[in-house]
Amino acid sequence: MGNCGHTDPLIRLEGVTFRRGDKIIFNNVSLSIPRGKITAIMGPSGTGKTTLLQLIGGALRPESGHVYYDGLCVDELSERQLYVLREKMGMLFQHSALFTNLSVYDNVAFPIREHTQLPEFFIRYLVLMKLEAVGLRGAKDLFPSELSGGMARRVALARAMALDPELIMYDEPFTGQDPISMGVLVQLVKKFNDALNMTSIIVSHDVPETVSIADYIYIFSNGVIVGEGTPEALANNQNPHVLQFLKGLADGAVPFHYPASHYEQDLFQGKEEGVMH
Amino acid sequence: MIIGSVQGLGRVGLRFFNQLGESGLFLLKTVFQKPRLIKATPLLIQEIFFVGVFSLPIMLVASLFIGMVVGLQGFNILSQFSATGELGQLVALSVVRELGPVVGALLFAGRAGSALTAEIGLMKTTEQLASMEMMGVDPLWRVVAPRFWAGVISLPLLTIIFCVVAVFGGDLIGVEWLGIDGGAFWSNMQASVDFHNDVLNGVIKSAVFGALITWIAVYQGYATEPTASGISRATTRTVVYSSLTVLGMDFVLTAIMMGGW
Predict the structure, then answer these.
(1) What's the pLDDT at A275?
(2) What integer pLDDT is reported at residue B238 of this predicted model?
(3) Minimal Cα–Cα distance from B6 to chain A, Å?
(4) Mutant choice from B129, B134, B137, B227 vs A, greatest count of A C-beta within 10 A
(5) What ipTM does this complex have?
């Protein structure tokens, strides 16, 4: 991996195509995620944003094309090599995915205990530091069922950060949060990225929050990248998909109506059938 | 019409063998892991506690009543031949050879198998397994393997306890209540029960049942469709499949053992 200088992007996707059944999720997508920056992947629900994270983590393999992590071809690694690679990645799941039978403390300690031989007193230092960083040191003895949604996500964030990963992936970190927790999370994502010099990928459709902290944004629609650039550049983008998504318009490039047969025809057809039966 | 039914049969067959292969690979990956005793031992002990110790109450109650019923039924029949002294032999042999391993396994499938499926299924539904994978921890090692081995270890032990309590139940009815001579009851039992052919074979049976039930349970949980109805279907399947497998396998094992392996 000596050929990877720090100007290289940490992650590159080259001509990645992926489909679920007959539905094409990604059609020949190429993109790169720069080191030390916050890159946002945005787009309407169902455009495969989470799938993209799974491709990077090696949980899914592309049909064609390659995913590179620091020069390593992720889709060609064996399962055992993947597990080693994932120790360098942290991921915040959409529903937090805390282990329900472990306390907050043990949840954060879990990856440290699994991957290191550190003595327990040292693990305690690390866990308390991570929990202090997300403001939940006082909640260390609670169980996940006793936490609010926002708190659970902060614990999950502390757990994802437990091994100080190079890369952290956020899957819809702001969805379903009240304004206060949302503000806290936005601030934490930014703070961690800057303070720890990590690379962050945020998958989200919460436009204002994401735009406020992202360094670079990719906007997906129907399996292709419809817009990319810094937040300022995207604000001036005239692509109808980008405009509709950033402004939240009900109708536009993505139509309000799901494809259907002619409305009047559909109504009368139903009536005729009703008479006939 | 005929072609349709043949096609249907083929589809069912293909699906069955597909699942069998998948679950077989799953079992191999679970069993053949790099041994890490220091980390694995506490996990295994914890799971034996959940799977084995929590199944004890139901086993104790069920075995006591089964021993009592066999004692009562046996006494009624044997008394027609004035052979009530053989009651000890009857109770011990039927319990050690068949009732202990089989009924114990069926109870175990209902009590522990369903719980394993529901637990692993819920962990999958709430993305706990996926998050473990993303942390670089293999859920097959961390979640599935300890539960599988706990089942394989627990069921034979539970079955031994089952047999002991059932024999005690037979004694309670035969000797204490119906007044058979205790000496005849116990000495007849001692004379007729063979350690290798009866006791050891029963324990071997229950070890096989334990492996089958927990294999089915952990696989169904791991392969569950991640929805509420998916978990309920997987739990039902665990109980149905493992009960049928136990009964079918019991016949096969009995046939092999009778043949004098």
Answers:
(1) 53
(2) 95
(3) 26
(4) B134
(5) 0.79
- Of the candidates B127, B128, B134, the beta carbon closest to that of A57 is on B134
Q: With contacts defined as CB-CB under 8 Å, which chain B residues touch A97?
A: 126-128, 130-131
B85 within 8 A of B185, measured Cβ to Cβ: yes
Domain-by-domain residue ranges, chain A?
Answer: 11-88+165-276
**The two three-digit tokens of residue B189, written as one number:** 């039992």
Residue B184 CB burial class (10 angstroms; 0-12, 13-18, ≥19): middle
Q: What residue ranges do the domains of chain B occupy?
A: 52-258
Model confidence pLDDT, tens digit, residues B175-233: 999 888 889 899 999 999 988 888 999 999 999 999 999 999 999 999 999 899 999 99
Residue A161's Cβ-count burial label (10 Å; 0-12, 13-18, 19+) is buried
Q: Give the Cα-Cα-Cα angle A223, A229, A233 (nearest 5 degrees).
A: 130
List the single residue in A59, A94, A110 with the smallest CB-CB distance to B133. Answer: A59
CA dihedral A198, A204, A206, A209 (to 10 degrees): 0
Question: What dihedral angle (degrees, nearest 10) is formed by the CA atoms of B55, B59, B60, B63?
Answer: 180
Check if the beta carbon of residue B59 is closer than 8 Å to that of residue B211.
no
Interchain proximity A93–B138, CB inside 8 Å: no
Strand order through the sheet with A23-33: A23-33, A11-20, A64-69, A72-73
Residue A17 has pLDDT above 50, yes or no: yes
Determine contact, residues B108/B210, Cβ cutoff 8 Å: yes
pLDDT in tens, B129-140: 988 988 888 899
Distance of CA A164 to the CA centre of its chain: 18
pLDDT of residue A225: 87
At CB < 8 Å, which residues of chain B contact A? 126-128, 130-131, 133-138, 142
Helix (H, G, I), strand (E, B) or coil at A45: coil
Class of domain A11-88+165-276: alpha beta
pLDDT of A242 higher than 90: no
Q: Please tell me which of the candidates A86, A98, A99 has its beta carbon nearest to residue B134.
A: A86
Q: pLDDT class for B95, splitting at 50, 70, 90? A: very high
Q: Residues for chain B: how many in total?
A: 261
C-alpha angle B6-B238-B100 in degrees, rounded to nearest 5: 115
Residue in B114, B127, B118, B123 with CA at minimum distance from that of residue B143: B123
